[in-house]
Amino acid sequence: MVTFLEQPHDAFAPLLATLNSPAFRHILATAITIGALALAYRFIYNDYHAFLALGPGGTPSTFRGYLRITYLRLYAHRDCLTPPPLTPDLLPSSGYLLRLPRRASPRPKVAGIAPQRQLDQRPLRRIHDALERALRDLADAHPCLLRIGTSAAEKYGFALFLNATAAVRRKGAAHLNETCRDTGEICHLHDM
After folding, report:
1. What are 149-191's pLDDT values in tens digits?
2. Per-position b or e across 142-151, b if 16+ CB within 10 A of its CB
3. 106 and 119 Cβ atoms separated by less than 8 Å
4. Strand, coil or helix: 187
5. Strand partners, 138
6. Three-state SS for 191?
């Protein structure tokens, strides 16, 4: 009895002819394309719903907003735990927060780029309220320089701004980032 491997090559000629035929190659290419499209659809579907799960933010929660964020991901700073290098013309060149104590606990998980959301380690309501109260007190103590309002970056929620008549419009504001320079927004709190 002749085994499969011992068969003469001529026995495979019809199979090889079928595999080399244009019709088979077309069917194979179609099957691969359909499989790739199904995988791409599944990825986009899951990624879009993960984007929606971040909640409202500076980018609209629409498919167009999702496409914008997907494009921006190509240029996003990947490691949110390490700051990007500062440009030489930014003053101070070393940053402002050099004397902060080291964090004892693990850093929170974050997702998204706009909106960017902290996924765990949420503050207690009393901490959130204390932050808002501190920002209000700061604005009240310096009404010529600071004001409170709705975040221009997030499109909702409490924010602290430089007053429109203050340093934002002055000649020396070139070192401020675009959001602060254009809207005067210094910081905002995310709703709980």
Report:
1. 988 877 778 899 888 655 545 555 555 555 555 678 888 888 7
2. eeeebbeeeb
3. no
4. strand
5. none
6. coil
